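Give me the fold.
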Amino acid sequence: MANPSPRANEVEGTSPRRFTHVRLLSDNATAWNAKRHLIANARHTLDLSYFILEVDGTTSRLLLDLIEAAARGVQVRLLVDYFTTFQQAAALRALGSTPHLQVRRFGLPTPTWLAALNAAGIDARAFVTGLMTASGPMLAASLKGNTIFDASVSHDLHSLPSTPGKGGIGFPIQVLGALQPEPHGAPPAAFELAAHRDAALKKVALLIQILRGLKQFLHRNHHKLLLADGQWFVMGGRNLSDAYHCGDSSRGHVFQDTDLLAHDGCSGGSPHARSFDALWNSVPSADITIPEPLDANPPATTGTFHQLASALLATPPGADFHGGTLLPDMDGELVDNLPSDKGDPAITKVYIAQIERLRADGRPASVDIVSAYFFPADEANTSETLLALRNTLLLAVAAGLTVNIYTNSVASTDLKPVNRAAYPKLVPLIEGGVNVFELADGQGSLHTKAAAIGDACLVVGSYNMDPRSELYDTNNLIVLQDPTGAATSAFRRTCIDALAWKQLTGDAARQLASESRTPPSAGITESLL
């Protein structure tokens, strides 16, 4: 999976761009209205890229807005991730049949991988569906009669904890750990019993194909972007779902998140447009209207959107939008992680550079990082840049800077295995002087991925500070420079101070680490997370 094109920031070089009409969107309903505003006022093009799209009330209203935009001649392109929208295929196909509206999915299982599964006697449909639905029993059943894996593998798969929905995004990593032979262990029984050397080699080759295909399937489109007419955009952490656009917990789970609305009027076109084109035209992307054998959903119509949206008391968006917190016009840059077999460290390097720049300044300052899923590296073989980022945080503290990390607790997170596995990594940071705060109970889940680095630098995007964001996910980030300090002050006030936090001590982190159960596949799980 080679990089489809140079990153947007590399195309632009180092010259900063000027962003105007910037608004910080810390409220869920306000962020939803901002998206509706851009869709309603688009004249020529709308490009959207999202990790999760749930066909619920708020998203159905947005999809109807897109249909209305297409009806007035706006060219609409919607790119979603295959893994997290597998269950929405029928509705997306109905949406993609609308004139002037195209829908693509990123990261479909490759024909080569499916053929390898079938050649090994594995039910490919059941295996991939089991991955999508985080069903260990379905995966185990798919291996019945296979020629590669023995009964112990089926047992391990059957025993994997089920975490459907978004919480299941880490499930394929656990599956890969169960299928992966031990580095220095004995070969699978099927290889030992092979009557002929050639047959054994074929089985080895088939196993390699299956594992490589599964590892490639871990790559996901994690961009969150709505780009109107190539200049106006909303980006940040929010997906398309009630959980990100509603503040009422009675309607389900609620995420505390952060988006940014801005205008990029610089000449030469927006880097957002080039990055979107790179993802749209990449090999892992496929048109939703092309029949996909694994899509078993019954046909759907856009009438489903009307039914779900009818319960919302939504007024048509006007020509002006005044929601959120208005920030100063600022210089900045846009940075992307794009598909690559070995990951893309561009965003990690941006964080390192901005923190080191602040440390070099030599004056007292604060680094406040809000990361929903914070999983620091502690071994160079995970990622040299992620290890460098961890060390940069410790060096900043040693230089007299205050470093605060705000993240989820086990109680608040929707990805509990990540939190539990992260606690041992947090102990050295806390002992090194980094302050770690967890979201207090009763406020939903944290989903923000943003930072205030000193008083002059505000960073907002889709990038979680964990290995999978660099190694497997595509992401986008905006880095804004504001000498007045107004932008970082607004962020700290609305996205940090407005919430309640509980500081995590070293003793508490060690206790939580000791209570975490380590699965047999912990090594590969951590290296792939």
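The first strand starts at residue 17 and ends at 25.
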